[in-house]
Hints:
With 422 residues, this protein is mainly alpha-helical. It contains 17 helices and three strands. It has three domains: 6-120, no CATH class; 125-300, no CATH class; 302-422, no CATH class. The longest helix has 31 residues, at 236-266.
Amino acid sequence: MSGLIAGAAQAPVDTRIAFLVELARRLHQYGTSAARLEIAIAAAAQRLALVADVWSSPTAIIISFADPSQSEEGLAQVTQVMRLPPGDVHLARLCEADAIADRAIAGELGLREGFRLLRDLGRPETRRAQAAVVGSYGLSAASVAALFLHSSWADLVVAGAIGLVIGLITVLSGTRPRLAAASEAISALVATAGAILVSAFIVPLAIKSVVLAALIVLIPGMSLTTAVREISSQHLTSGTARMGGAIATLLKLTFGTVAASQVCAAFGIYPGTFVLSPLPRWMDWPSLLIGALGFAILFRAARRDWLIVMAAVVVGYLATRWGGLLSGAIPGAPFGVFLGGLLLGALANLYARYMHRPGAVIREPGIILLVPGSVGFRSVSYLFERDTTLGMDSFILLITLLISLVAGLLFGDLLVSPRRSL
């Protein structure tokens, strides 16, 4: 953000505080981690001639403001407490909020106008935008089925169709609190039951692969990664809370899949055992491009950023794959994940430095194919099935991949120091 401008810094204290509080609310709503939010708000407050002590968690923000221009004895302090739902990544609105803050602090628009513009960002999404998000769930599920699971054409089509249904459930839960609380379990139940029914009566499927691909967007790999990043940066409360939320989501997803399997078995419905031929290897490349487009829509990137987001997804995948092959292991092995995180962290900082826009445009979608959410889902699933050996092996792999990815992102910050908090 720009330097201190007298006009903005001399606005009434209440106006400056209201602007900063609304900025913090929007950054939280659009998926900013605790560490980055706290740095961003503290820096913005300093440029507005205020001192801000910021505490952020996945469900709350506490900010204490002070005006150092007053005498030490009469130092004015105002504390704002906000109770907020967990945020979700929305790249377009995150960039808008960052641009509004830059312009307001630079004096290009008044703080009151900036406050109004920030508040307008909270408008509900249009039906067209919601439909696009639903479509992105289907594209993401189909691409993962082809790219990572090397499933058959039938698996790909069914995973994409179930992904659309899950996207619809997720969008509907956004305005229905009771549905939102159980949406993950309902989605897992619908995905598993749908896959079993199709496999039993229409065409044989690789059930576990189809269910995993269909649920891939809901699996909290990004939340697990952010939690470890926050814990490693000493934001212990936020990281622990986010970790707890991610584990709860994994449990709900696993319960839904187990419940659906048991219900189908109780009615004597079992999936077909014949396995169809997998997709040809050349399908990896169109699947990667389709998946990258799906993730651009899923992260609500602005249209002008779609190519950048898609390039970030492709770079992250290729770096991870190349790193895995370089280390003599399978693609996606710890060294490959570390290399992908390192490259994306550095590229995100370069983008933020020279384009003067949030590095999250590259960082967040770029690591989506690196996060080990599917490993965590499989680990919990094995434990539910009482296969403790595979469950513990998967859990150890999950921890290894998380550490590798977070280490890569941290080393990326060391390789190219960030100039912007977002």
